[in-house]
Amino acid sequence: MTKVTADDHVRGRVYAPVTVLEYGDYECPYCRGAARDVAEMLARYPDTVRFVFRNFPITQLHPHAEQAAEAAEAAGAQWKFWEMYELLLQPASRLDLDSLLDCAAALDLDVGRFRDEVTGHAYLPKIERDVHEGIEDGVNATPKFYVNGERIDGKVPLEGLEDTIRAAVRAVSGSLPGARAAGRVRHWCMAMWRVRDFHADDLDAAVRLWDKPEASSEAPAFGLSDLIAAVRSHQPAVVAVVGEELAGTAVATVSGDRAWVMRISLGAAWRHRGIGSAMLGELERRLVAAGVHRIQCLLDGDSEIGPLALEHSGYRAHRGMVLYERVEPVGPASAGVLGQLGGRMVRAGAWDQLGGMVREKELIERRVILPLAQPQLAERLGLVPPRAIVLFGPPGTGKTTFAKGVASRLGWPFVELFPSRLAGESPAGLAAALRESFALVAELDKVVLFIDEVEEIAGSRQPRTVSAAQGVTNEMLKLIPPFREQEERLLICATNSVRALDSAFLRHGRFDYVIPIGPPDRAAREAIWDRYLAALPHGELEMTAIVEESRLFTPADIEFAARRAAQLVFERVLFEHGHEEASTGDIVHAISQTRRTLTPQVVAEFEQDITDYARVLACRSTP
Predict the structure, then answer these.
(1) Cα Dmax for the chain
(2) pTM flag (> 0.70)
């Protein structure tokens, strides 16, 4: 059997002595049944077994299997492989593209990127490698299981796998890693933390944490008895756990549309890792869902725990008692509408975290964001803030990320409309669904409305012909002027093919700016690499070589290559006990394993589109 590599998806403890490998097909009914057995197996042997899944779509029998495998790999690129795996193998799961997009939205993925990678077959080479290795391993049907390299023939139930696993455990019992190696691996695993809801059996560990003055943001208004009463009465509370250890807690109490964060506690060993901010973010999600509009936290003036997390999350301090307060942009009246539209608040700081692409970012900041963020100044100077813009450029250049960043920078709710999904939701058709969605959007106080692949609803109309597509384009043209009449809203439409849009759609009066978002140049690529390599231990790197090797890479390509490099180093340290610092060779190797999104022809067409369609004032250089 081919050995497990960095490209494989592994579930369970990395140092487990038994490896169960499955070649599977997401459309195969036997694979769906086996998924339940695998889940039981992992639950029964959490310290003994690790599970590896490889793609083996049998396209002659299952026409959607390959696309489903591409969807799982695309989710994996956003760190959600196993969540997508579970959705796809549900007994009643549908695997058409619209259903896969629904799954991506349910997992809170970047749906635009997900769709581009699935329809662009970005991960098909990886799937084909899995199939080739499966054929070499003797796979001719699914599911096919291997236990420590031994093939298990037949449709094996859980009992059969257990017999083989027990035998495998006995066989390797004398060759488990030594204490030093095991301790090192455990160190890697224990570094992984997650945030979840507070459970009743967390109380003892939480009380011990609350009793430590150095671990808590203690406020005189809330004592230990208040915290215990809050969690016992099921007030909103979350914990951060590292393995079996409770590392931190965040507890709130709700009264009407107001909530108080009673205590943020974090063990000394787990500070400065973003855990406090993550707990606060999860707590906020639960509070907003409960109808909370104003969130406050009262801290002791000398508290060392909590202020940094609060400030990073957008709270402002009131002097004197140091009262931290955040007013949610979405009030209770708008929360229901936002929920109907599938909208959300983008995390604070998303705009600042956009690395590279300095020219595009400065242009959007000056022409779009600042006039909207400073409406009084704009009005005094006779400047009408933009109400609608178009972003165009090749796939993967970050149009969706820019749209979300604008919403974060303004502090407005972000709503994305998916034309393909709207078409299936309304029995009256896509044009009617658009009208209904825009009517709901009009009820929001403020909003960034984003439509990706807008050519689907605003494609070029043919003269002297009548079609449903033309009716949709006509409807979209009628909806934009009323949208522009309301303040504190921005329509952002994105397209990979600006030349496919109807000429009337791009006219002045509908869109203020038509902005190109192209591939990063050398300086931008270096800045993007700097951002992603900051988290990866490395020595002296030849950035000139790295930047040159990643020519024609989009920001998404660079992110993927950086993750691939981190995985290579992780594998080297874990399995070969090699050095922990990434080298230029590691980065270049990761680049060679990453497929470029762009081609010279695509870039040439984009440059021509800038000449033919771009409409934006150039930024004035800062002295």
Answers:
(1) 80
(2) no
